[in-house]
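Format notes (please read before filing issues)

Several people have asked whether sequences and structure tokens are stored in separate files. They are not. Every record keeps both together, in the order shown below: the sequence lines, then the token lines. Line labels are part of the format and must not be stripped during preprocessing.
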Amino acid sequence: MRIETTRFGAIDYEPESVITFTQPILGFQEYRRFVVVPGPSDSLTWLQSCDSAELAFLLMNPCSIMPDYRIEVGKHELVELAVASADELDVYTLVVVPQDRSKVRTNLRAPILISPKHRLAKQVILERSDYPIQFFLAQAQPGRDEPQEVSHARTDA
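Then the structure lines:
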């Protein structure tokens, strides 16, 4: 299959590579089918809508900026994503890249869970969590006591 996108041009993909959201991403109710497009780095990836040429989300592995990032996945989510344990899931967070690069941020409170085996996904809201909704990457402290700036140069590819 092929989709024409505004960001990546034409993308050819196999129907079995489509990731289906069991519930939509917040604010995007009508979009549930996506394909993964390699991102500008190992910790970033794109999630391109199969139904909208303009809709693509930049995702990141939250452990790349917060190595101790851990979430509790409820039994309901495990069943919904057809997995036996959270170890079978890939965890990502949405990245917002505004014009002002010092304000690049990710939402650590609402991660995206993807079951690569079953190609199912869901955004979850962590009810009991100290993780912020807006975590500014310029303030990231990757395993250090003092702040260290994270490069944003590759996030706008």
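For reference, the curators noted about this record: The longest strand covers residues 90-96. The radius of gyration is 16 Å.
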